[in-house]
TrEMBL record:
It comes from Thryothorus ludovicianus (Carolina wren). Residues 28-114 form the Ig-like domain. It comes from the Eukaryota. This is FCRL2 protein. Coiled coil: none annotated. Pfam families: Ig_3 (PF13927).
Length: 114
């Protein structure tokens, strides 16, 4: 289900019996689809522990335990407001000394952010 599936629903069917013939409808039912807030955001690092040799590759993965989508991701380095990427993973090729920092992943579904 998506949020846009909220609404009033009823079923309608053709009845053909000895007593009556024609279309009959059920009473309407209101359905409200609610988004699940984002929670359980965790960061996975490859290589494990984030210890990487100069010139090697570092891959950060943002994982979400619960939350309805669509999900959008934003990667940030400590001390900077600029986004480093918008995917669920951030890959740093040929890391240098300047890449040493704390990294953070923010996840949003339009209703909540974690």
């Amino acid at each position: 289900l998506q949020l846009h599936h909220s609404g009033r629903y009823r079923c309608r069917g053709w009845v053909d019996s000895e007593v009556s013939q024609g279309w009959e409808e059920s009473a309407p039912v209101t359905v409200t689809v609610q988004g699940v807030p984002i929670s359980g955001v965790s960061l996975r690092v490859q290589p494990p522990g984030g210890q990487v040799a100069l010139g090697d590759r570092l891959v950060l993965s943002c994982e979400v335990a619960t939350g309805t989508g669509p999900l959008s991701f934003s990667w940030h380095r400590e001390g900077s407001e600029a986004s480093l990427g918008t995917g669920s993973t951030l890959e740093l090729q040929h890391v240098g000394y300047s890449d040493s920092s704390h990294y953070q992943c923010q996840v949003s579904n339009g209703d909540s952010m974690a």
